[in-house]
DNA sequence: GTAGGGTTAG
């Protein structure tokens, strides 16, 4: 007989999760459904159960309502979750907790805090679940001060007996940068009872703070290690690109699981060792969706299109059902390396499977089309979207700007505002880029100054970079230099490089020399800078200085890596560099170039040789 | 509460 577990007076446990939607007739059956409700991710089914709950007058039951809120939150139906909450006259702490979490899950962090304040105002006392949920709302949006405030509150009310509470505090501190990590360490030191999660959170925090050595020390000191401890340490080495140490640890590791193997595969793909990655991938005792995703994206990111497509087909044939993460990952990898063929392949299988595209998936698709040169397709996908978010607008604006259709990009900027979206710092990168490509210098400068004035966005160094590029390409080098000299932050190598790029277009020799002094000081071995400088001198006919720079390059022992072009032809990628003769059809290719050259000159093509 | 893939810029 199945052993019954202790449970609430109302809901018995259930062994299997909710599956196909079926009409439940008895109250007993409904109770069974409700007990698993918080795991339900099927929206139509959820709505059906909601209706039955309502009919049975259980919607304000103190046990049912929090589960409903959690379920609707999981299905990204925050509106409905809030409505469910509002149906309850006297919400208890569980219901408040689930609404706080619902807001965080649906990216409404500030509303999570508002809910917490409402809760206090209404005299409902927080419990040991409230704080971990509230701390989650701090991640990514709030500062250290916020976590400190919650910490203080927790001390006042005293929930530290539950190990979940200090553990989640350690984690939150660690996600607030290096200072946060030291606060976490202080807390960790004074904790009386630490469990393996406390140790793991601390090791993970040290790794995130870049303190790999100290993390290893703590890992070695741990009284007990579980599979998460090992995997955390493994990932630390992987993220630091130290594959030797990672492999060493991996070999020693007891009880490796699918995450351990995937971490290693991911590490080797990122290090560019696709052979080793594939070797481990093939040896994996168990593969899941994430492992496949890592290997396929790894191939795609590095331009191994045949292998990527082949493995993608294999994954589909193995019967695994793709999720958002898989599709977004692969599309992002295609976008990065311009693998349109795989991107198209992914899309066609999405269509064939009737995959319901979330906004994030569609955004990734738009970005893939745009970065692979199909701006029209990107625009068509964007226009067909039923629900757009800020990322959708930013992606299409950036895509259009990159391809020189700055006019459409700027038009969409206005439409975006009409649709009620507030531009953010990324939007302005796209807008400034659009103006640069169109040569709208004054208009771009106007947008730059409107950022802080009209939108309360303080320009960052990237925005200054865009402004310098805008002025520089527009030939207003003096103003560009003034921006560099007067901007509120120290100019970095990218800023000076941008200015140098402008010099390359307009040949002001003196300025170029000035810029270069800064650049060489910052990054003396950067061959690209030196070779660009030598080109500027060459264009000005200053051969003595050309020789000086060349000599400097030789002395430092740098050589500018050749630029390459890649072509994707019927799913096969061909790579070319200048004076390259490694391609099997090299002779034919050069013959064709000779044939094409005079024809290209006719409409006015003049290759730039400097 | 701790571990592997995940959309926009740089």
From TrEMBL:
UniProt keyword annotations, A-Z: Repeat
Coiled-coil annotated residue ranges, if any: none
UniProt keyword 4Fe-4S present: no
Gene Ontology terms describing biological process: RNA modification; system development
Positions of PPR repeats: 92-126, 195-229, 257-287, 288-322, 358-388, 389-423
Entry annotated with the keyword Ribonucleoprotein: no
A GO term, aspect molecular function: mRNA binding
Family listed: Belongs to the PPR family. PCMP-H subfamily.
Protein name: Pentatricopeptide repeat-containing protein At3g29230
Classification lineage: Eukaryota, Viridiplantae, Streptophyta, Embryophyta, Tracheophyta
Gene: LOC110786858
């Amino acid at each position: 007989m199945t052993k019954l577990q202790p449970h609430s007076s109302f809901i018995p446990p259930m062994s299997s999760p909710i599956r196909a939607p079926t009409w439940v007739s008895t109250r007993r059956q409904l109770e069974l459904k409700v007990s698993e409700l918080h795991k339900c991710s099927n929206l139509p089914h959820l709505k059906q159960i909601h209706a039955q709950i309502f009919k049975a007058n259980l919607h304000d039951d103190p046990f049912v309502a929090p589960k409903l809120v959690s379920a609707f939150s999981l299905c990204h139906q925050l509106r409905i979750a809030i409505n469910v909450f509002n149906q309850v006259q006297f919400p208890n702490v569980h219901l408040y907790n689930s609404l706080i979490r619902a807001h965080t899950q649906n990216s409404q962090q500030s509303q999570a805090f508002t809910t917490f304040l409402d809760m206090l105002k209404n005299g409902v006392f927080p419990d040991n679940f409230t704080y971990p949920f509230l701390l989650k709302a701090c991640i990514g949006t709030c500062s250290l001060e916020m976590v400190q405030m919650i910490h203080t509150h927790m001390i006042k009310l005293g929930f530290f007996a539950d190990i979940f509470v200090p553990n989640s505090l350690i984690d939150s501190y660690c996600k607030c940068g290096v200072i946060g990590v030291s606060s976490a360490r202080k807390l960790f030191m004074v904790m009386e009872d630490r469990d393996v999660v406390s140790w793991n959170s601390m090791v993970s925090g040290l790794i995130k703070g870049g303190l790999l050595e100290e993390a290893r020390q703590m890992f070695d000191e741990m009284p007990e290690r579980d599979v998460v401890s090992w995997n955390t340490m493994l990932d630390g080495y992987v993220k630091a690109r130290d594959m030797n140490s990672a492999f060493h640890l991996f070999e020693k590791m007891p009880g490796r699981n699918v995450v351990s193997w995937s971490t290693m595969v991911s590490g080797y793909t990122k290090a560019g060792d696709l052979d080793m990655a594939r070797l481990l991938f093939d040896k994996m005792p168990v593969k899941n969706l994430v492992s496949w995703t890592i290997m396929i994206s790894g191939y795609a990111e590095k331009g191994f299109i045949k292998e990527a497509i082949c493995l993608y087909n294999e994954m589909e044939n193995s019967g695994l059902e793709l999720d958002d993460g898989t599709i977004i990952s692969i599309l992002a990898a295609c976008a990065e390396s311009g693998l349109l063929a795989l991107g198209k392949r992914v899309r066609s299988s999405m269509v064939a499977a009737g995959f319901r595209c979330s906004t994030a998936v569609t955004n990734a698709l738009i970005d893939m089309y745009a970065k692979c040169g199909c701006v029209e397709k990107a625009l068509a996908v964007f226009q067909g979207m039923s629900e757009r978010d800020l990322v959708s607008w930013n992606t299409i604006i950036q895509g259009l700007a990159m391809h020189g259709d700055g006019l459409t990009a700027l038009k969409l900027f206005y439409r975006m505002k009409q649709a009620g979206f507030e531009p953010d710092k990324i939007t302005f990168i796209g807008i400034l880029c659009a103006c640069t490509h169109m040569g709208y210098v004054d208009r771009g400068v106007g947008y730059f100054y409107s950022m802080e004035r009209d939108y309360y966005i303080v320009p960052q160094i990237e925005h200054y970079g865009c402004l310098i590029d805008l002025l520089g390409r527009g030939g207003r080098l003096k103003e560009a230099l003034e921006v560099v000299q007067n901007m509120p932050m120290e100019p970095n190598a990218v800023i000076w490089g941008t200015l140098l790029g402008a010099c390359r277009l307009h040949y002001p020799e003196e300025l170029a020399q000035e810029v270069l002094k800064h650049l060489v000081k910052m990054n003396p071995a950067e061959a690209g800078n030196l070779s660009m400088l030598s080109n500027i001198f060459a264009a000005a006919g200053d051969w003595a200085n050309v020789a000086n720079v060349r000599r400097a390059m030789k002395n430092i022992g740098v050589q500018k890596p050749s630029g390459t072009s890649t072509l994707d032809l019927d799913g096969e990628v061909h790579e070319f560099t200048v004076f390259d003769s490694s391609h099997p059809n090299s002779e034919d290719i050069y013959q064709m170039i000779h044939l094409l050259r005079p024809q290209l000159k006719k409409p006015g093509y003049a290759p730039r040789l400097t």
